[in-house]
Design a protein that fits this description.
Elements (H helix, E strand, L loop, with lengths): L1 H28 L10 H18 L4 H9 L1 H28 L2 E3 L7 H12 L7 E3 L2 H46 L5 H9 L9 H24 L15 H18 L6 H20 L14 H13 L8 H12 L2 H11 L22 H6 L16
Antiparallel strand pairs: 1-2
Helix pairs in contact: 1-4, 2-3, 4-5, 4-6, 6-8, 7-9, 8-9, 8-10, 9-10, 9-12, 10-13
Length: 391
């Protein structure tokens, strides 16, 4: 009977170790999305994110809610590494239990709990020596486990800095969008501010193409980094009114308007940026396992579209207004809005509007001392002023 249980334990231990090593390889080393139905990492995030966001839903104040949600990404990364380490330790303990042949100082009986302890001190190379493997097989397994412990430490040392480097690259461009398109960014604000940089009505084609080219590359880097390191999807920006999803959506909105037709603007670069951004929106919705939401609110009702068109005209930009243009804009929106809506709902992120009904202060215009400075009469910084008044 003991032999039967030993065989089952050894097989179970091998299965656990194989599953963890395969999952770690796919998560850390393999630079592409894995299509298997079950993955330990995906299961871990589904089982931890759902209760985390449920608790976040009880927090009424939006800033505190976003702050609480911001802890999940870094904390989950540490917990995932802990799950891998614990699983490997238990897996090796099961194999050691199946192999047998261990001695303990003091001649106390060897239990499975003690074998887990011995596996843990071997994995982390503590080397106390109070439980000693006595057979060739158990000694070989201990050496293999110790080597795997070193490899795991190398993964931790190498994996976390790479994740944070990718996060930093992503956030630099998002922070730069603050002065270009507002906080949160909107398509209309970006186009109006670009138009305000020229003396003549309209927008300079070269300037628009440069901006869109930068965001084409950013979208490609976003797709590559968050497919390679899915945990980045849960990392939130430094400001609660910024996110990778809002920046991506704003760029899709901008390029949709240009592709619909803005007088004087060639849509060549907009086509490339839209294609790359839409690709990122679709694939990243699948990375986080987002599901289609048929009950989402229309981001651009007819009245808002008219107001949007008027805001563009005030900046010297004329958006096409015939039936074909309206149909084209609606068709373009239908190719990406379901994906960004579903991703936003799952990750509890806010999608940006197409325009701000009222002028809002950008993040760079806000500071903790502004009210005190205003009270001392050193400036009217508390009043929200147009963007161009600050330069």
């Amino acid at each position: 009977m003991h032999s039967h249980y030993s065989i089952i334990a050894a097989i179970g231990g091998i299965a656990i170790i194989w599953s963890v090593l395969l999952d770690a390889f796919e998560t850390v080393v393999l630079p592409r999305r894995v299509l298997r139905n079950f993955r330990l990492t995906a299961y871990f995030y589904r089982r931890t994110w759902i209760p985390w966001r449920r608790v976040a839903g009880w927090i009424k104040k939006p800033s505190r809610r976003q702050n609480f949600l911001g802890y999940f990404g870094p904390l989950s990364l540490i917990l995932l590494l802990g799950v891998w380490a614990t699983s490997l330790i238990v897996g090796f303990a099961l194999i050691q239990y199946g192999i047998g042949s261990h001695e303990q100082l003091g001649s106390e009986p060897i239990t499975f709990g003690l074998l887990v302890y011995q596996s843990g001190e071997t994995f982390f190379t503590l080397g106390y020596g109070d439980i000693v493997p006595t057979s060739a097989a158990s000694r070989t397994l201990s050496v293999i486990e110790a080597g795997m412990g070193f490899a795991f430490l190398g993964v931790v040392i190498g994996y976390i800095p790479v994740v944070y480097t990718s996060f930093s690259r992503r956030e630099i461009q998002i922070s730069m969008l603050d002065a270009r398109a507002g906080s949160p960014p909107t398509a209309i604000e970006l186009l109006v501010r670009l138009a305000g940089r020229t003396q003549d009505p309209g927008v300079d084609q070269k300037t628009v193409d440069e901006v869109l080219r930068d965001w084409e590359r950013w979208s490609a880097e976003l797709l590559e980094s968050q497919i390679s390191y899915p945990v980045l999807s849960f990392f939130r920006s430094q400001h609660s009114n910024q996110s990778w999803l809002s920046a991506l959506t704003a760029m899709l909105d901008v390029t949709s308007l240009i592709l619909t037709g803005i007088e004087g603007l060639n849509p060549g670069q907009a086509k490339l940026t839209f294609a790359m951004a839409r690709h990122a929106a679709v694939d990243l919705a699948q990375v986080v396992n987002a599901h289609y939401r048929p009950d989402t609110e229309d981001r651009l009702p007819e009245a808002e579209l008219d107001a949007l068109r008027q805001a563009l005209e005030n900046a010297g930009l004329r958006l096409r207004n015939d039936d074909a243009a309206r149909e084209k804009l609606s068709r373009l929106r239908s190719t990406y809005e379901p994906y960004v809506h579903s991703t936003a709902g799952l990750l509890m992120l806010q999608l940006p509007p197409w325009r701000h009904p009222e002028k809002l202060r950008d993040n760079w215009q806000a500071g903790p001392w502004d009210r005190l400075i205003q009270a001392r009469g050193l400036g009217s910084v508390g009043r929200v002023r147009p963007f161009e008044d600050h330069f």
